[in-house]
Specification:
The chain has helices at 48-57, 307-310, 372-375, 384-395, and strands at 17-23, 41-43, 63-67, 74-76, 87-91, 98-101, 106-108, 112-120, 129-133, 151-168, 171-174, 180-188, 191-194, 204-206, 215-219, 222-225, 235-237, 255-260, 263-265, 273-274, 283-288, 291-294, 319-324, 327-330, 333-334, 359-361, 366-369. With 396 residues, it is mainly β. Mean pLDDT is 83; it is low at 1-26, 28-33 and 35-39.
């Protein structure tokens, strides 16, 4: 497993450079990098928005690649609006990632990818989403999935890999009141900390006009909330969201949720997902080896395990369900899905683990299991970074 060491407060006296290049592959330049832009640099402490704009003006390429070498401690977002027609990729050193301090929401006009960075969002307000789509969408997105009037962003629209998101006060990703449908949103090996200031924000907010994310994949990650408030929902799509309304062929396509090997802790005051019953007719739920810790056990629907994700109306004829090997806890009490009171036939989890992992210090984001019985499971659920500690414990 790759290790990420990060420091939210880095000290460095020297100023370092960060090379910005643009991707524009041709037969003569198969790598896609424009050599004339190698001298475009930013020093530690500078503002990314200015440099992204500078490189965008100098290239006709379709990707802006920001590579941050080791030693650059902190940069600031400024007011970033990513350029139309260009994917922006930001990568820093794997061992000591650069801290990107968000001073304003990041507005997306196209695709975005982050790898090996720490994003500190503490300066944002309660009403802010860290990433929000452009209120003036690229008209070329309309119907790109095949039909309809949605703003379809095909392929990997959003990819976060080995990223630490620190102190998000509102939501993570939102449609900004426009009918965006990103095709693939992928979160891999990340730590995402929400510190909700309002208590009614949703992590993924796509609730404008029958829209939503087509495929949402979260794996090998820890996602949690601290402080006195919680998110409203983790995922919020429009009530009439449906795969054919996204512009896809409902005879072969589905809306997909893939949550695999994650730790979700104390996130929501309501259901985990919220949308209308139409969505489930053409949807796939692949939910395996996660830990779900809920701390709102007074909610009358708290222990309706699958319903909290699939929806209140339950399983539909076209719904594909794979809930397997998850652990569910309510205020620290493990819940045996096979003995649920008044459960419906679909509201169970195959091979569910009815044990409390007894996290080392969940309030500080340390989800290392300390329960000796839990430690004996060879395929323990949850974020693998903590499972790795389990394996080292056994060896010792």
């Amino acid at each position: 497993m790759k290790k990420i060491s990060f420091f939210l407060n880095c000290a460095a006296s020297a100023m370092f450079a960060i090379a910005l290049t643009a991707c524009n592959a041709t037969d003569d330049n198969p790598t896609g990098f424009d050599p004339s832009l190698k001298n475009v640099t930013i020093q530690s402490g500078d503002t990314l928005s200015l440099k992204i704009s500078e490189i965008a003006e100098k290239t006709a390429g379709d990707e802006i690649f920001v590579e941050i070498p080791a030693g650059v401690d902190t940069v600031y977002t400024g007011e970033i609006t990513t350029p139309y027609g260009k994917k922006v990729t930001i990568v820093s050193d794997e061992t000591i990632p650069t801290v990107i301090k968000a001073t304003a929401p990041i507005i997306l006009s196209n695709k975005i990818a982050l790898k090996n960075v720490v994003v500190n969002a503490v300066e944002l307000s309660a009403s802010d989403n860290l990433f929000t789509y452009n209120a003036e969408p690229d008209e070329s997105f309309i119907g790109a999935a095949g039909s309809g009037s949605m703003y379809n962003i095909l392929g990997e629209a959003v990819k976060f890999e080995n990223v630490v998101f620190d102190s998000i006060p509102g939501g993570l990703l939102a449609d900004n009141g426009k009918a965006y449908v990103p095709e693939e949103v992928i979160i891999d090996n990340c730590i995402i900390q929400f510190v909700p200031k309002a208590g009614n924000k949703n992590a993924f907010q796509f609730n404008t006009n029958n829209n939503g994310i087509k495929n949402l994949t979260i794996k090998n990650s820890s996602v949690y909330a601290t402080g006195g408030k919680r998110l409203g929902y983790f995922v919020k799509y429009a009530n009439n969201a449906r795969i054919d309304r996204f512009g896809y062929d409902n005879t072969k396509d589905k809306i997909e949720f893939h949550y695999n090997n994650n730790t979700f802790y104390g996130l929501c005051s309501n259901y985990f997902h919220n949308y209308g019953g139409n969505l489930k007719n053409y949807a796939e739920f692949d939910i395996t080896k996660n830990i779900f810790y809920y701390d709102n056990a007074n909610n009358t629907q708290t222990k309706q395990i699958v319903q909290r994700i699939v929806g209140q109306a339950g399983k539909a004829a076209g719904t594909e369900l794979n809930f397997d090997g998850n652990a569910f806890l309510f205020n620290g009490e493990p819940y045996d899905c096979n003995q649920a009171t008044n459960k419906q036939s679909y509201d169970v989890d195959t091979n569910s683990i009815g044990l409390d992992p007894k996290f080392k210090d969940a309030a500080k984001g340390n989800f290392r299991p300390t329960n000796l019985i839990f430690l004996n499971f060879e395929n323990a659920p949850g974020d693998p970074r903590w499972v790795d500690w389990v394996n080292r414990y056994k060896k010792n």
